[in-house]
Amino acid sequence: HRFNELHRQFIDRFAEAGNDPERLARILSRTFLTTSARNQLPATLLSIEERGLNGVLTLSLTGSHTIQSIITLKSVRNMGLTVGCDLYAIIKSSDVTIVTTPPKGEEAMNTLKGTISRIESQDETDEIAFALDLFTELIALMNPKDTAQLSEGMNAYALISPKHIIIGL
């Protein structure tokens, strides 16, 4: 049973490459890493803007969504990040907030439009599944007092600080 699960994971890694042999080579050269973060989104690096000690990375997700992540320029160099490279945007579910209206004038916040696909309540926490498109879903963990106005099927917005998006290869 464990072998079948590992085999499926291995095949899934191949599928990420599509028909691009160079991309497959990069994927196979990666070390497998498992994290506790619920949101691990495949992305492509669109740009790197230097801002003091930090780099502001603009990432393209599946569909038409883009987000920004802020990491140190030292990390950009150590990871060998270049425009066009494939990577993962890793976001803890507690760092995602779902709201019904987008914030006004909050340019520093990633604001993603989508649909609430599921709300699960347990104890003092609500888990919200938030569909960006057919292929990408975010998970948000929120306090029930902040989710009273949310319902399944509703259009809403996911808010994520660029400082809370970890980059993985």
From TrEMBL:
UniProt xrefs under Pfam families: TOBE (PF03459)
Biological process terms in GO annotation: molybdate ion transport
Domain of life (superkingdom): Bacteria
Gene3D superfamilies: 2.40.50.100
This protein's UniProt keywords: Molybdenum
Transmembrane recorded as keyword: no
PROSITE patterns (UniProt xref): MOP (PS51866)
Domain Mop: 34-100
NCBIfam families referenced in this protein's UniProt entry, alphabetically: Mop
Protein name, per record: ModE family transcriptional regulator
Organism: Sulfuricurvum kujiense
